Amino acid sequence: MTLTIQSIRRFHAAVAAVGGTIPTDLQAISDNLAAVNTWQPAPAGAALTAALTTGKFNPATAAKHLDGALAEVHDPATIQKVRGTATVTLLAQYGQEISGEGGDELIESLRPAFDAALEGLRTAANLFNLNAAPNQILELGHDAVDAYNAIPNHRRVLDSVWYDVLDWMVNDAQGPLVLGQDRLDRAADCRRLVMVMPAPRGSLTDLASAVEPVTTNRLRAGHWSRLMGMTPIRLNSPSEARKVLDAYLTEQQESMAAQLAASHPS
Predict the structure, then answer these.
(1) Residues 6+ apart with CB under 8 A from 250
(2) pTM value?
(3) In b/e form, how buried is each residue of 215-227, taking b as 16+ CB within 10 angstroms?
(4) Model confidence over 79-88: pLDDT tens digits?
(5) Which of 15, 90, 105, 249 is the most exposed place for a label (fewest CB within 10 A)?
(6) Cα(101)–Cα(112) distance, integer angstroms
(7) 102 contacts 25 by C-beta, under 8 angstroms
(8) What's the CA gap between 153 and 157, in Å, rounded?
(9) CA 164, CA 67: separation in Å to the nearest integer?
(10) What's the CA gap between 222 and 152, in Å, rounded?
């Protein structure tokens, strides 16, 4: 994990673009990072100049003001070290917060937009096959046409959450990797999948194949039309996703143990 100020800034913009809000604690850390990034130490000798021009400099105070000015001489390497120490500490705080309550709260703020878009696809799926040709839709009446025309907007919201928000949270090298880096086949897709599954459902490998962009980008509803047919969908918080992932990993470990026992009977 190599969180950066820039990646957090982009992430916050992505969250806002799909109607989410940044929790107070996460925003406070981000604001502190911005302040550290723009901080410049006061010019050396500023206090001495003020003392000289306001009459506060005299033989009795001369040593104090001159010593103070000497202490204000800034070494660029020291300035960078101070800024770096503060930045590393704040980035660690951000990663910890978004992996816990902050991440849960952030996802909660995205659910209305995510759920509305998902419901739009479900409404369309109740009227026609989501991969139906346009001429087939025309025969079904105005409601079907309206639902068909709305699919791109619904997909845009769902894809934005999937690629711009969830991917940064669980996969991006400049994100917090809130689910860790477990050894999984097609790990990137699997980590995103457990963020939208209320419970384990079938093979993660099969589900990962269903969301393969090479074969789903051309579909009007993208990979969502396939995924909806294979598992219930719900936007999970990191805490909820960990439970789903843990269940899959436990199942994987038990399966490997069983295979090992079968190949090495006592």
Answers:
(1) none
(2) 0.84
(3) ebeeebbbbbbbb
(4) 888 889 999 9
(5) 249
(6) 19
(7) yes
(8) 7
(9) 53
(10) 9
